[in-house]
Amino acid sequence: MLLLLLFAAIAIIAAILVVSMKNIMHCALFLALFLLSVAGIFFCLDADFLGIVQILVYVGGIIVLILFAVMLTSRVSSALLEQTNEQKGLAITACLLLASAITAAAFRTPLVTSFYTADPEGTTRSTGELLLTVYALPFEIASVVLLVALIGAIVLAGKKGE
Amino acid sequence: MIYASQSLGDLWNWLLQQFAELCGSLGIPEVIRYMVEKGAYAVGLLVFISLTALVMIYMERKVSAHMQLRYGPMWTGGWHGWSQTIADMIKLLLKEDIIPDKADRWVHRIAPIVIFVPSLIGFLVIPFDKYLIGADLNVGILLVFGFSSIAVLSIFMGGWASNNKYTLLGGLRSAAQMISYELPLVLSVLGVIMTVGSLKMSDIVMAQKDVWFLFTPNLLGFIIYIIAGTAEVNRTPFDLPEAESELVSGYNTEYSGLKYGFFMLSEFTNTFIISAIAATFFMGGWNGPSWLPGIVSFLAKTYLIVFLLMWFRWTFPRLRVDRLMDFGWKFLLPLSFFNILMIAVWVLVKK
User: Fold this and answer.
1) A126 and A71, same structural domain?
2) A72-128 pLDDT, tens per residue?
3) At residue B220, does pLDDT exceed 50?
4) Residue B130 to residues A18, B96, B201, B202, B331: CA-CA distances in angstroms?
5) Distance CA B177, CA B159 (A)
6) Which residues in B lie closer than 8 A to residue A49 (C-beta atoms)?
7) Which residue among B157, B168, B172 sits closest to A29, beta carbon to beta carbon?
8) Which of A30, A34, B206, B347 has most Cβ atoms within 10 angstroms of its Cβ?
9) Whole-model pTM?
10) Are A60 and A3 in a shared domain?
11) Given CB atoms, is B156 within the 8 Å cutoff of chain A?
12) Contact between residue B61 and residue B73 where contact means Cβ atoms under 8 Å apart
């Protein structure tokens, strides 16, 4: 429980730093720290498979993609680089709506402190079985959406070379 | 009682039992017992890692030298220059630590730590012997791949923070390569996981009691694994990230002293981890002839793979960037998909 709170605290601090740092590279690195501490929270809740997938997909995949984009931009940190834009009112409204939705959802679901199962295989096997039986349709839809995104990216990138 | 024929794993298990009994009789709480046990294992692991790095650096120099009809280090310490690496390490420790003037100081400082810690965590799930494993987790193998993907972050950090175009290019190349080859690497191991039906390292070793997976249809997976693994640890023919003739030394050009030492050390520990997983997944891990202690047969197999990787390094020329990407995405990835399909059919037929 103590570890869980520690990871949660790191996650919150890192998340605040992501949006308040001046240098985009530092923002991206704090985002990585944030995602890692979320993985730590998953481990504390005995959801080992989810935690490792969090690291594998988010830190190993998405953060690296973001870093690629950041490294290829010429001016990473500069006083001229604007951190905010004109749409403050709209942004605040969206954030408040999202926050209230999350709070409502959080109060309605019971607090789970552990996903521990007696199954010696842990959560991996049951996750896999559920994905391919009960949740087969959402799983397949997600795959199709990703495939569409992949083809779209290839089409967009390919046109330039012609 | 312990006998000479028993292996290190049995000895460790026996010690643990004795310690548990001692704690029981003295009334020491469970938490402290657990922490002492894991702490002792961690200390042993750290000693092992440093020794392994020393041996591997010496081996690399000797293998490279003999492949090129040279002798390599011959003077330091007397017999065949055995203490050359120790002298080099002391030199690295004493060197001045330079941070470039225009570097991003903090990112530059943290990068060597970020690369070294994940490779330490990888060692936790490697089964050296029957009871000799840091943590026999349910997600065993995924832990290694998950944390090794963090190493990409460090290469980015080191390459970007040094504020040098060579390190930046080296970092970009390295990251692109590591992402591309991570896919075939993980997919090639999937064949073994499908055969065993578990991600646990101990289950995978136990499943190879009679026959190594190398001698089953998983052979194709082994070949893919070795190719992708060579790329993952940035060794020739896939050493573009640190191509000396083009990029000085790649992402670690601006590092000196102990920080450079960490980058170099993690390169060798990652090579060891890749080889150790190859030995565990395809060559039976600590299974071996009964008269040989498990750890000896495990280390023999691992060092065989290490030697293979060194052999590659000193005999193959370097690939070009576009060919490297083409090979990874257009050949290795489809081949590993085919491997999964083939293993699935084989598993079904065997049932």
Assistant:
1) no
2) 776 655 555 666 667 788 888 998 999 999 999 888 877 766 666 656 566 777 778
3) yes
4) 45, 44, 11, 8, 37
5) 15
6) 138-139, 142
7) B157
8) A34
9) 0.84
10) yes
11) yes
12) yes
Q: How far is A58 from chain B (nearest CA, A)?
A: 10
How far apart CA A52 and CA A37 sit, in angstroms, is: 12
At position A27, the amino acid (one-letter code) is C
Residue A111 vs residues A1, A36, A48, A108, B215: alpha-carbon distances, Å: 13, 22, 18, 9, 49
Contacts of A87 (CB under 8 A, 6+ apart): none
For residue A106, give every residue at least 6 positions away whose Cβ sits within 8 Å of its Cβ, in sequence order, or none. none
3-state DSSP helix/strand/coil % of chain B, to nearest 5:
75, 0, 25
Q: Which of B217, B229, B188 is nearest to B335 (CA)?
A: B188
In a domain, A108, yes or no: no
- For residues A66 and A134, state if they share a domain: no
As for the ipTM of the complex, it is 0.77
Count of C-beta atoms within a 10 Å radius of residue A106: 9
Residues of A in contact with B146 (CB under 8 A): 52-53, 55-56, 59-60
Range(s) of the domain holding residue A140: 121-162
User: Does some domain include residue A83?
Assistant: no
Contact between residue B218 and residue B191 where contact means Cβ atoms under 8 Å apart: yes
**A124·B139 Cβ contact <8 A:** yes
